[in-house]
Specification:
13 strands; 2 domains; four-stranded antiparallel sheet; D-Maltodextrin-Binding Protein, domain 2; Alpha-Beta Plaits; 28% helix; five-stranded mixed sheet; alpha+beta; 249 residues; elongated; 7 helices
Length: 249
């Protein structure tokens, strides 16, 4: 699919059983498009699994091109945030143009003289590009967390994570966030992530996205979620799924 929105639409329509979308990068942070689709999508999909992938970015060019020939660089905005230092150091005069994806950046580059793209080795193989520089991300390790989206989340495994989204009925009342988090701490439930996104209703109102350890059907977590939902104007369990665990190389 050309975009994250298209991936979500494919799963939502039944065209695909599952879809994979990036949600968080260790350098650039969360992927807003994915978060907003989870929260504001027309019909809620569930997170069924998560995958963490090491990311190695490469500067690709048309065969025979040299560094001095590069006038334009095609790059996905999320990738740009991971490689901005390299571009500013090595190509300060080049024009940067946004692409829909890393693959689309390479495809666009191959049809335009004087251009380069940031992409993968696989994209270079597919489109016949040459790799001019490799490992151009600003820091290592550089990893991206992807989520697997489906109509239903995962059954309990004993090593799970649950993602929720919520907003409070009284947006300006002090202590609401603390009160919600207390429901987790009192039950010894570990919270691994919290962030906010605009509600898209009015300025200054936000939806909080929270990741906690455990499955939504576990008794302590189920009780905490029930207590929190009472005070919310918006509440959605985005899914319970196995926590990613690194395997030995």
């Amino acid at each position: 699919m050309a975009t994250i929105t298209a991936v979500v639409a494919a799963v939502d329509s039944g065209m695909a059983d599952e879809g994979i979308a990036p949600i968080e990068n260790s350098l650039e942070g969360s992927v807003p498009e994915t978060l907003d689709l989870l929260v504001h999508g027309p019909r809620p999909l569930s997170i069924r699994d998560e995958i963490v992938v090491p990311i190695n970015h490469n500067l690709l060019v048309r065969p025979g091109m040299k560094t001095d020939d590069v006038k334009v660089i095609f790059v996905h905005p999320q990738t740009l945030g991971q490689c901005r230092g390299f571009i500013e150091r090595c190509f300060p005069k080049a024009t940067v143009e946004a692409a829909l994806s890393n693959a689309a950046a390479v495809e666009e580059m191959m049809s335009r003289e004087g251009s380069a793209a940031i992409g993968t080795r696989r994209a270079a193989e597919i489109y016949g590009a040459e790799i001019l520089a490799t490992g151009i991300q600003d820091r290592n390790p550089n990893v991206t967390r992807f989520i697997v989206l489906a109509r239903y989340d995962h059954e309990p495994t004993g090593h799970d994570k649950t993602s929720i989204a919520l907003a409070f009925a009284e947006a300006d009342r002090p202590g609401q966030v603390v009160g919600a988090l207390k429901e987790f701490s009192e039950r010894n439930i570990n919270l691994s992530k919290i962030e906010s996104r605009p509600s898209k209703e009015k300025l200054g109102t936000y939806i909080f996205l929270i990741d906690v350890d455990g499955h939504r059907t576990d008794s302590p977590l189920a009780e905490a979620l029930k207590r929190i939902e009472v005070n919310c104007s918006f509440f959605r369990v985005l899914g319970s799924y196995p926590r990613y665990r690194e395997t030995a190389a």
